[in-house]
Sequence to fold (227 residues):
Amino acid sequence: NAGVTQTPKFQVLKTGQSMTLQCAQDMNHEYMSWYRQDPGMGLRLIHYSVGAGITDQGEVPNGYNVSRSTTEDFPLRLLSAAPSQTSVYFCASSYASSDYSYEQYFGPGTRLTVT
Amino acid sequence: EDQVTQSPEALRLQEGESSSLNCSYTVSGLRGLFWYRQDPGKGPEFLFTLYSAGEEKEKERLKATLTKKESFLHITAPKPEDSATYLCAVLRGGGSNYKLTFGKGTLLTVNP
Fold:
């Protein structure tokens, strides 16, 4: 299993540009989520999905869109990049059942810089 | 609002010098507490899940414990390869609607 994969690993954008961060998992997990990690702030939840066609907002959703058309993929779209979105973005997945531990598996991250 | 506070923010140890990291939490209806390890430039890696006060789990030089208000990650005779940021997270809810709240982490450096 490849686990959780993210592309690209690094990205530089100019203010106002749009882009999509890709996330895929091959563990048949229902639950997928996007976090951003900033120095001194910890991991903060942006959006999450409990299955194909179902998404919801997390703690810091403004400026980001998500969709989930398949179990495997959960892309994160930046609509109009701002310097405040400079961060490291992590995608994570897990089972969504009390039969499991809700242990989240994280991808390697995408380091985004907005100038 | 769920709150997770980790202390200290940074800890520097000599190889073999045992110590503990603290994670105190305020959450309504705790379903579980997680410990993760994060190496520089990588995603967090799962270490432990604790579900109820009094529970303990061990893995090599690490032991995690849980009370009703806090969790400790005890590191016994650490080695330089234990250097990393250790993250604590609390789980609320369950089924298809759960929420994980992370602390800011403790940066552990173990010197040879």
User: Anything to note?
Assistant: Chain A touches chain B at residues 4, 30-31, 33, 35, 40-45, 50-51, 90, 92, 96-98, 101-109 (CB under 8 Å). The radius of gyration of chain A is 13 Å.
